[in-house]
Amino acid sequence: MTRTAVLGSGNWGTAYAAILADAGQEVCLWSRRREVADEISATHVNSAYLPELMLPESVTATSDPERAVEGAEIVVLAVPSQSLRDNLAQWGPALPRDAAIVSLMKGIELGTASRMSQVIAEAGKVELERIVVVSGPNLAKEIAAKQPAAAVVASSSARMRAKVAEVSAAPYFRPYLGGDVVGTEIAGAVKNVIALAVGMASGMGMGENTMASLLTRGLAETARLGAALGADPQTFLGLAGVGDLVATCTSPLSRNRTFGYKLGTGMTLAEVVAVTKQTTEGVKSCESILQLARSVNVEVPIVENVAAVVHEGRKPIDVLEALMSRARKHEAS
Ligand SMILES: NC(=O)C1=CN([C@@H]2O[C@H](COP(=O)(O)OP(=O)(O)OC[C@H]3O[C@@H](n4cnc5c(N)ncnc54)[C@H](O)[C@@H]3O)[C@@H](O)[C@H]2O)C=CC1
Ligand SMILES: O=C(CO)COP(=O)(O)O
Question: Model's pTM, two decimal places?
């Protein structure tokens, strides 16, 4: 039994705590709100996020981050990408020196255009070899229902990725090993923006041809950006790439797809923001991904047009027309 900590008890943090426990580990789950930690301790249920999931006895909860990470060999981070730096400023000194630090986040930081592993290294003062990224088609509600899924566990350290994969292997969760941290993070962040675009198209009443075209061309721009940043092109054909793109773009459980869908039906941005309570990473990351793409001179037309809707108030129908009338080009270019 390995002592593990999960910092963040939203959808994915709570579901990942269950994975670790079902894989045989002892888990301490940190909640920002004390009443959530108290509820989990008393009832083993996190009713605000995953009311159907009964957490195993080996999951305990606390709102004290120092207590959560004490003695942990694995520390899993599961908070919104845009708050991670602030969270780490609070937790950094308490993070155990030898532990593997696992990132579940799928976003790019606004302002710095940093990937999450870069934020963890900087703000948490963690050596890159200790950072492990877990990503794949992993809609939290399906995992909580123990439906089988796979993910890639990526790190520059073979020892760290093997350790994290080992402790995360549950009967319904199959980890694969990977060495491409950059590609895994870029794939996870960009797919949220493509899901916003697919959602918009669906909300406008478009069918499967439009969805498949956006998904395929979205994958092309993701891979193009990743390659310019040094990623392995194969990563985009794997679980963090095509796998997660398909799950997120096609599932009504995806918050990014749902957000886009609402915009596509004609709701205004302010109206959609007002009814969206949970983390929707693509909304902010579209801007930072665009900044990242410009810094390496890579065209990301779908991301650019989603950003135009979300940040400049353009109408989904107008950006769809803009995408359809771009200059003709070779498919592989
Ligand atoms: N939900 C899912 O199916 C999956 C989510 N992810 C990624 O995991 C990360 C976390 O997502 P979820 O757990 O779904 O989000 P969520 O919105 O369900 O939960 C976020 C958690 O972070 C906590 N938190 C801590 N500090 C915060 C702050 N300063 N501001 C706001 N919240 C703060 C919240 O209290 C909450 O418990 C995201 O990057 C997401 O893309 C990845 C795979 C699957
Ligand atoms: O990353 C996810 C599934 O792998 C979750 O997607 P959403 O954040 O759009 O719900």
Answer: 0.98
